[in-house]
Specification:
Blueprint lengths: L2 E7 L4 H5 L1 H8 L4 E7 L9 E2 L2 H18 L5 H8 L5 E2 L2 H13 L4 H13 L8 H10 L3 H8 L3 H21 L6 E5 L5 E4 L8 H10 L1
Parallel strand pairs: 1-2
Antiparallel strand pairs: 1-5, 3-4, 5-6
Helix pairs in contact: 5-6, 5-7, 5-8, 5-9, 7-8
């Protein structure tokens, strides 16, 4: 029996990055299938310039996440991403890249998400830039997705919009507020929301919650 889990997230959410090890753990559990559902939280109307005030707020929040979870936020990230004079806080490009992976190699999408998070928060690479996204995907052997990112067509943009709309609909259906969150499909298709806090706690407890749902 397969347990279907939907992961509500945004690729620029620091807490979602912190949840990465838990997602990798669940990915390795037989009988658990994870579907990624990008919510578009920081895309479109949720995107914004990376000004000094917002950069300071982001760094403070990131330091708190690092202290609580151990996930690293490097000086390279602070200098090259938060400190970029013309930078933007926009998850649209990364969401588009993940959609390209979903269309060409769906079994690798979670790997791609982890790689994009590492590129940003550890390597200090700008994951709002198409070339950076393509380079990361090529490093994973996802050449078809990388090519789509460098020359996105209307169909790819429509697919991304549909995914975001579906994720937002799921959030509304289960009363989810913010990300990261897990939604588990139970018997009869009933959906159960697991708090994002479960992704930051003991792995065995997380698995018990997922299987119990």
């Amino acid at each position: 029996m397969t347990t279907s889990v939907t992961y509500l997230f945004d690729p620029l959410c620091g807490w979602c990055y912190a949840a990465g090890p838990a997602l990798q753990y669940l990915q390795g559990v037989d009988g658990v299938h994870i579907s990624l559902a990008p919510t578009g939280l920081f895309a479109g109307a949720g995107a914004r310039p990376m000004d000094a005030q917002f950069a300071a707020y982001a760094w403070s929040n990131d330091q708190r996440i690092q202290q609580l979870t151990g996930q690293p936020f490097t000086q390279a990230y602070r200098d090259q991403i938060l400190g970029a004079p013309t930078g933007r806080f926009d998850s649209g490009p990364a969401t588009l890249a993940l959609t390209a992976v979903a269309q060409t190699a769906p079994g690798r999408e979670l790997d791609a998400l982890h790689a994009l998070q590492h590129a940003r928060y550890v390597d200090g690479r700008d994951t709002t830039a198409a070339q950076v996204l393509a380079d990361v995907l090529n490093t994973l052997g996802l050449a078809d997705a990388a090519a789509m990112v460098l020359a996105p067509d209307a169909a790819l943009h429509r697919a991304m919009a549909a995914r975001v709309a579906s994720a937002q609909s799921t959030m509304q259906a289960v009363g989810a507020r913010g990300v990261p969150q897990l939604v588990v499909a139970g018997q009869g298709g009933a959906l159960r929301l697991l708090s994002g806090d479960a992704l930051l706690g003991p792995r065995e407890q997380l698995l018990e919650l997922v299987l119990a749902a």
